[in-house]
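Quarterly update, task 2.4: zinc ion-bound model.
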Amino acid sequence: MRAARIFDDLSLRLDEVAVPVPGPGQVLVRIRAAGVCGTDLHILDGMIKPDPYPMTLGHEAAGVVEMAGDGSSMSSGDRVAVYNKMFCGWCKQCLAGRPNVCDTLPGQLGFNMDGGDAEYVVVPERNLVPLPDAVDFATAAVLACAGMTAVHAAKLSGLRLGQTAIVGGVGILVVQAARRTGSRVIAVADGPDKIQLALAHGAADGVVVANAEEYASLPARIRELTGGRGADVFFELVGTTESMTAGVRCLAKGGTFVSTGYTDQPLNVHPIEFILSEATLVSTVAATREDLHDALTLVASGAMSVPITGRYPLEGVQEALDALRKRGVLGRQVLDIA
Ligand SMILES: [Zn+2]
Ligand SMILES: [Zn+2]
């Protein structure tokens, strides 16, 4: 089969490899669509290191069950989204509903094990979530990363009806998930086109923040938009020191800073900034399988949608990643794999 593989010299090449064989409890999935994500760039840059190289890239996949291993209840032809994080199902964290931080299985497709930018992938059956008929493969692939992460972050934020949330960074799915809690959403992004997209997906207001001075003045601008109060929740998706500092300072008393995005830069605020306003810091990493299920259900019901703005064949993966790196992408890009 064809697979887009990253090698130890950090080159990405389309390779011909054997179709994997599902063992007991595993399922072979024929990939129909795979999402292209900013995290893939971290792997191309060597910031996240697969062990071992080479590794098939891709952590956002949806497709059709091709063959089920012994003991699986799946049937050939079942439409599925792939939950990319391995989990045991039995450790304390898994039992508490946090398979995303499973104590025993560190594997994650497309991070440290062969992922979905290929014609097939083998995963444990418990990593598959059935696709509602109304959700197409490309949309499901994006929900298997950005969508479920947005739902997870909205849940963990504790956001409630009547509150105000700020989405800092390009997060159209976070905008929608936050909106669905009944909150007012203010989008913060580095360009007017991204603000327009956020407004079209439920944001009530938008603030363009493109440089250090604009970040420094963001808390004052947010207070203007919130009657002087500030935001109940700030979803921080950018992860630079200046974006995170601004985010903390946008909070209302009792507000919650949700740390999701990261770069190589530290969060650097004095604890008194949290203490005096009794602010909360919440961090989120990926999502649970239930969040993927909920994201699929929200899209199937029309409550959320995925703006897909670029479609490429598997051979176009490098081209898609190049476009993403140039930040020339509004919405999400997907590989269509026949
Ligand atoms: Zn992703
Ligand atoms: Zn576990």
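Highlight for this quarter: The chain has a mean pLDDT of 96.
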